[in-house]
Specification:
Mean pLDDT: 84
Strand order of the largest sheet: 1-2
Largest sheet: 2 strands, antiparallel
Low-confidence stretches: none
Distance between the termini: 67 Å
Order of helices and strands: HHEEH
């Protein structure tokens, strides 16, 4: 019953590998989101997304300049 032992070992290895890689993504997400909308406080990755956000969510407002 060699295959049964191989299966158990493979499951154990996969469990160890998955356990190491799992975790919270909050830190990675916080690093990626650099720009915040001053009106609704939503966090965005860059100025281009902020411009698109303003055109869709705040059409009557003028987006802030890139220097902010």
């Amino acid at each position: 019953m060699t295959r049964g032992k191989q299966k158990i070992e493979a499951q154990r290895k996969n469990a160890e590998k998955n356990q190491k890689s799992k975790g919270s993504q909050f830190e990675a997400r916080a690093v990626a989101l650099k720009v915040t909308c001053p009106i609704c406080k939503v966090q965005l990755a860059n100025q281009n997304q902020l411009g698109e956000h303003y055109s869709s969510k705040h059409p009557k407002e003028k987006p802030p300049s890139n220097s902010e």
